[in-house]
Amino acid sequence: MLRNKLPDWQVKRNIERYIRYGYLDEDENKQLYLDWRTRAEIDRKALVNLLLGSETQNSEVEETAETN
Question: What is the pLDDT of residues 19-61, one digit of tens each?
């Protein structure tokens, strides 16, 4: 999702930073997970609602573009 809006190098840099700070973790299959700091500092329910709202808005924009 981020690579659609930002250059690839910027996405990699930010993901690496979030891993270093403890917000994200990455397994051997390159799958990202929320790490200890995210669980401690961020309201997970609000985060999920924010992400789902973003996906809903993107879907609505794509549907509108397809009909025009």
Answer: 999 999 999 998 999 899 988 888 888 888 888 887 665 555 4
Domain that holds residue 60: 2-67
Distance, in Å, from the CA atom of 62 to the CA atom of 22, rounded to the nearest integer, reads: 34
Q: Please provide the size of the chain in residues.
A: 68
- As a whole number of angstroms, the distance between CA 11 and CA 38 comes to 18
What's the domain count of the chain? 1
Annotate 6-64 with three-state secondary structure.
CCHHHHHHHHHHHHHHCCEEECCCCCEEECHHHHHHCCHHHHHHHHHHHHHHHHHHHHH
Helix (H) or strand (E) holding 66: helix 44-67
